[in-house]
Amino acid sequence: MKVIDGSTVSMPDTIENQIEYPQPSTQKAGCGFPIAKIGVVFSLVKGATIALFIDVLNTHDIKLARRLYSFLKPNDVLL
User: Fold this and answer.
1) Three-state helix/strand/coil letters over 27-78
2) What pLDDT score was predicted for residue 29?
3) 45-77, pLDDT tens digit by residue?
């Protein structure tokens, strides 16, 4: 049994993070932190992470989920 889930993470306000993961356009420049969206597939039985993808905030959850499908095996049950 596998689970795919997504969330967001706030990161330190470094130049490198701002370039790779710009802060949301709703935040005033210089007054926010870079935010990334993450997608994870993990084992429901063991609780272990199988794969993780990180993308920019405006990435749709379905796009991240599709990237994680390749980590599923025949006969896996996905929740």
Assistant:
1) CCCCCCCCEEEEEEEEECCCCCEEEEEEEECCCCHHHHHHHHHHHCCCCCCE
2) 75
3) 999 999 999 999 989 989 999 999 999 999 999
Residues near 5 by Cβ (< 8 Å), separated by ≥ 6?
39, 40, 42
10 beta partners: 35
Residue 46, token pair as written in the block: 């063991």
Q: Which residue, among 78, 4, 3, has the nearest Cα to 39 in the 3D structure?
A: 4
Residues 6+ apart with CB under 8 A from 37: 6, 7, 8, 54, 55, 56, 57, 58, 59, 61, 64
Residue type, 71: F
Mean pLDDT of 29-41: 87
